[in-house]
Every structure is written in C-alpha cells, then in structure tokens.
Amino acid sequence: MGETEYRNVRLTEEAYRRLESRKRDGESFSDTVERIAGERSLLDLSGVLTDEEAAEMREAIDGSEDRSRERLDRLTDRMDP
C-alpha cells in the first residue's frame, strides 16, 4: 500500500467551526470531509422529475400533511374535557 499524501487547507474560522460541528466521535477531519463530500445534494435531483410528476408529488405531500393535521385535531378534541 502506498504512503498517504497530505495537503494543507486554509479555512476561515466560521468554516472551521461548521466543519468541526459536523465531525463525529472518533472521526478525523479528513474522514469528516470525505463523508460530507460524498453526500448527495438536493440539487443532484434537479431534472429527475417532470414538472407534472413534481406537481403530483407536491399534492400528495400536501394531502398527507392535511390528513395528519386533521388526525391531530381529532386527538386533541378527544383530550379536551
């Protein structure tokens, strides 16, 4: 196995604090950067759905939220004396 190469990277104090806040126990900063850099962004999904599919999805989500709100209201009503 080859020797690991290291690079120095300059960060602003704010960037360092943000990176440090994402660091998990036992994880090096390199591990943290590799994990975060491998995460997918919502922007990666751009263009995956047609406008029609996106509208259908929004409607389904809105309907689900409405049903959840109604269920919560019914439960709250039953708890009120």
Give the topology.
Elements: H1 13-22, H2 29-37, H3 51-79
Give a verbal description of the structure.
This protein has 2 domains: 1-39; 43-81. Helices cover 59% and strands 0% of the residues. It has helices at residues 13-22, 29-37, 51-79. 0% of the residues are buried.
Q: Which class best fits the helix and strand makeup?
A: mainly alpha
Which parts are unreliable, with pLDDT below 50 for 5 consecutive residues or more? Answer: none
Radius of gyration: 23 Å
Distance between the amino and carboxyl termini = 71 Å
Count every helix, treating DSSP H or I runs of 4 or more residues as helices.
3
Q: What composes the largest sheet? A: none
Encode the helix/strand succession as letters.
HHH
Could you give a quick summary of the protein structure above?
The chain is an all-alpha fold.
Give short descriptive properties of this protein:
81 residues, mainly alpha, 3 helices, toxin-antitoxin system
